[in-house]
Amino acid sequence: xxxxxxxxxxxxxxxxxxxxxxxxxxxxxxxxxxxxxxxxxxxxxxxxxxxxxxxxxxxxxxxxxxxxxxxxxxxxxxxxxxxxxxxxxxxxxxxxxxxxxxxxx
Length: 105
Description:
This protein is α+β, with helices and mostly antiparallel strands. It has a domain at 2-66: Winged helix-like DNA-binding domain superfamily/Winged helix DNA-binding domain (Arc Repressor Mutant, subunit A), CATH 1.10.10. Helix content is 63%, strand content 13%. The chain contains five helices and three strands, in the order ααβααββα. The protein has helices at 2-5, 8-19, 25-29, 36-48, 67-98; strands spanning 23-24, 52-57, 60-65. It has a three-stranded antiparallel beta sheet. A hairpin with a 2-residue loop joins strand 2 (52-57) and strand 3 (60-65). The relative contact order is 0.13. The model has no long low-confidence stretch (mean pLDDT 89).
């Protein structure tokens, strides 16, 4: 999921999809200066990561945001952030202990 979110084009596509109620490849390609094939590949990556889902509307396939996946990503990032905060706090405490007055100068 994070690999999919790490690409600027996919991130901008995700933002566009999140603004609509399902957008087709044609609408997502319009005005971007990127080929339909390229957009299709990026959308496939987003779908494989569970960030969007495909919905058939007549002859078109539209892409719809899966907000529960973004919520899962947010929770994961918060958990990682807490782990880093705790690790940095342990490091700070260790450094302060080593710099204490018992150190020979």
